[in-house]
Every structure is written in C-alpha cells, then in structure tokens.
Amino acid sequence: MSSQEKNVLVVGGGIIGMVSAFRLAQAHHHVTLFDPAPAKGATWAAAGMVAPSAEIAPGEQSNYELQKGALAAWRDVAHTLGSMTGEEMTIAQTGTLFVGWDASDRRLIEQFAQVASDFRAPMEAVTRMESPELFEGVSPRISEGLLMGDDAWVNPDQVVRMLLNGLELLGVRIIREEVTSIGSDAEHVVASTGTDEIRGDRGILATGAHRLPKGALTSGDNVVRPIRGVTVRVQGIDRSAQPIVRAFVRGRAFYMVSRSGGYCVLGATAEERAEAVLEVGELQRLLRDALDIVPELETANVLDTRMGLRPASADLEPFFEVLATRGWAWSSGYYRHGVALAPIAAEHALQFVEGAS
Ligand SMILES: Cc1cc2nc3c(=O)[nH]c(=O)nc-3n(C[C@H](O)[C@H](O)[C@H](O)COP(=O)(O)OP(=O)(O)OC[C@H]3O[C@@H](n4cnc5c(N)ncnc54)[C@H](O)[C@@H]3O)c2cc1C
User: Which domains does the chain have, with CATH numbers?
Assistant: First the structure.
C-alpha cells in the first residue's frame, strides 16, 4: 500500500455512504463499509429525481446552486460504473411538468414560478393546446403548467445494484453490522460493532437520519432530524418518454416518476416524525391526489409502498462536518436531495480523506 492510499471506514450504506465508498475505492483507497441493511434507509424509498428546478423552494438558493452540478456528476458516476459492470445506468433527462389542481394550487404554481425566476432556473409556461404530448395521462381539467426541462431521474434500485457490484469489483469490504461506537487514537480511527473492532486511517459517518454512534463528538452546529416520507410503486402507465409530473393538489405536493415498462413511483408524503409506520389516511391522501392528477392510474397495480426518513438539518442544507473525534467526518443533512447530491457528497469525502479539507 502506497503512503497516499488510506484505509477508510464508511459507516452507513445508504446512497451517500455507497457512492462515497465507491469514489474512495476508485481512487485506490481501501474501504470498509458498515451497514446492517445497506440501502434500506431513506434511499430505499427515494424516487430518484435529480430535479434541481422542480425542487426549488423559497430560501433554498444555495441548495439549488449545489444541485445544478448533480446531473453532470451522476453522468460521471454512470460512465465509470457502466464501464466496470457492463450495465448501462439509466439517466432520463425528461424534465418536469409542474401543474396545479384547483385555483389555489395554480396560485401556488405562480408563487413557485416567481421563486424559480428569481433563481434564474430554466422553465417555460406550457399549455395542453400547444403541447398535448406533455399532458398525456394528466387529468383533462388541467390545461396549463410549467416545464422545467433540465430535470432528470435515476432509478435508485438500479443504482444501488450497480454500486454493490462496483464495490465488490473494487474490493470494498462490506460488514453487515451496526457500528455502535467510534473513536480514535494518535494513529488510527476505530469503529466497533457488537463483535469486532476495525481500525483505519480515516472514518466517515453517513448514517442518514439515524442517531450517531457513541463517541462521535460533533461541534453542535449541525443536527439532523427525520422527515418521514412514503412512496408507492405501481405498474400501469408508461409516461417514461414524458416529463416527471409534479403537482400541487389541495395544497399538498404530489409527483409521479414514470420508468419504462409502466413502472411508476408516486410520492411523496412528508411528516416531521420518525415512526416506521404507514398510516391508512396518509396513503389514502397520496393515492387520491394521484388519481386526481393522473386518472388513468385507476387500473394500475400496486406493487409496494416504501417508507424512509429524510435526514434534514436545521437550515435544510447538507453538511460535511469534520468531527472533534480525530480522523472522523459526518456527511448528512441531504434531506429531499440525497440521491441527487450523492456524487457531490462523495467528492467531499475524497477531499477529506486525501487531506484537502
Ligand atoms: C419518500 C422519499 C422520497 C425521496 N425522493 C428523492 C428523490 O427523488 N431524489 C433525491 O435526491 N432524494 C430523494 N429523497 C431523499 C433521499 O432518499 C435521502 O436524502 C438520501 O437517501 C439520504 O441518504 P443517506 O445515505 O444519508 O441516508 P439513508 O439512505 O437513510 O442511509 C443511511 C444508512 O445508514 C445506516 N446506518 C445508520 N446508522 C448506522 C450505524 N450506526 N452503523 C451502520 N450503519 C448505520 C442505515 O442502516 C442506512 O442504510 C427521498 C426520500 C424519501 C424518504
């Protein structure tokens, strides 16, 4: 092992930990990844949108600027993973069609358009009359909307499968156990599971909305709270050649990401709570909104429902904090954008390990 190559411990195998581990291993570091259930956290529920424009929200301009680099960063990851595994990663730059259900929802769209215009996001007003193909499958009572052409999606299930392959090919060791505590001495970092203690040169905590292991000394400037979300997967409508549908429905946010073959992800609920349950009322509201916006979903088959806890920081910005526990850093707070931002998080991890941050 050359002096530049480091042993790196990555705790948490969600999209952030996995892409970070992949990037580090690709840069010839020796990586151990810990997770009792890789990719079954928030990553499991995510729709996979890489949609900076449709994700615009008041006060979140720096987040928008960060996300603008996400698609290019994903194309790099897709290229590298694709040439290693022989599988082509789907990155569908379909854009987003954003519509409102009733007059007050259309008012919310106008307010959104104002913020997006302040951020100088690319968008155009579209109508059913001029562009009927964009509105295919969308309720006939909706005749206008906004098109954000730069938005895209990846399929997290495919991405995770390819990453697991890529990690194996790069010799990353995956330990399917929880890390209960971390620490360090003058020379090493250490991660302890119930059964083992593993040493390395650097450690990264990518534990999403979960509590940090014992021994993680943070500055206190960053905190993470869980914002629970549910998505429903159905089989029925193929709108994969058309934009992602996004809507305000009676004030609630709804989206449908359609993949080829009629597989659609409907989402997403958002609640400030951490219980791993799915309530009937929550599911009913989501499906009612879905049927109002895309009536053809009436006969679609429900495949599964997925729940995840989005890791949200106080200011809703992601962070990469170098901890007071020597040699360790904490990468979290990716909230609604962890899939989009994972390759950018991975670059921070690499800079930390190679000593530039
Ligand atoms: C319903 C829903 C829809 C979403 N849609 C999108 C979207 O379209 N686009 C987008 O960009 N983002 C989306 N997100 C957000 C995105 O899923 C998250 O931002 C992202 O998954 C966060 O990744 P993470 O790796 O930090 O956390 P997670 O995916 O939660 O992974 C954390 C991992 O750490 C492991 N872990 C925790 N503690 C320990 C420990 N002590 N030891 C070992 N392992 C540990 C857990 O088991 C887990 O696997 C969505 C989220 C939800 C809930």
Answer: 7-87+156-224+314-353 (3.50.50.60), 96-148+226-311 (3.30.9.10)
Q: Which of 56, 96, 210, 232 to mutate to test the pocket of ligand 1 (most atoms within 8 A of CB)?
A: 210
Mean pLDDT, residues 28-53 taken together: 97
- Report H helices in the chain: 15-26, 42-45, 61-67, 70-85, 103-118, 156-169, 280-293, 338-353
Which two tokens mark 301? Answer: 């088959």
Is residue 287 over pLDDT 60?
yes
Find out whether 23 and 204 touch, Cβ atoms under 8 Å.
no
Long-range contacts (CB closer than 8 Å, 24 or more residues apart) made by 239-242? 239/136, 239/137, 239/264, 240/92, 240/94, 241/94, 242/94, 242/97, 242/133, 242/134, 242/136, 242/137
Q: What is the pairing mode between strands 7-11 and 30-34?
A: parallel
What pLDDT, on the 0 to 100 scale, is given for residue 356?
Answer: 54
pTM above 0.90, yes or no: yes
pLDDT surpasses 70 at 1? no
For residues 63 and 52, give the distance between their C-alpha atoms in angstroms, rounded to a whole number.
9
Ligand 1, residues at Cβ distance < 6 Å = 11-17, 34-38, 40-43, 45-49, 178-179, 206-210, 213, 229-231, 267-268, 308, 310-311, 332, 334-340
CA of 144 to the centre of ligand 1 (A): 34
190, 183 in Cβ contact below 8 A? yes
Q: What is the pLDDT of residues 163-177, one digit of tens each?
A: 999 999 999 999 999
Q: Whose CA is nearest to atom 4 of ligand 1?
A: 46
Task: Retrieve residue 346's tokens.
Answer: 């991975």
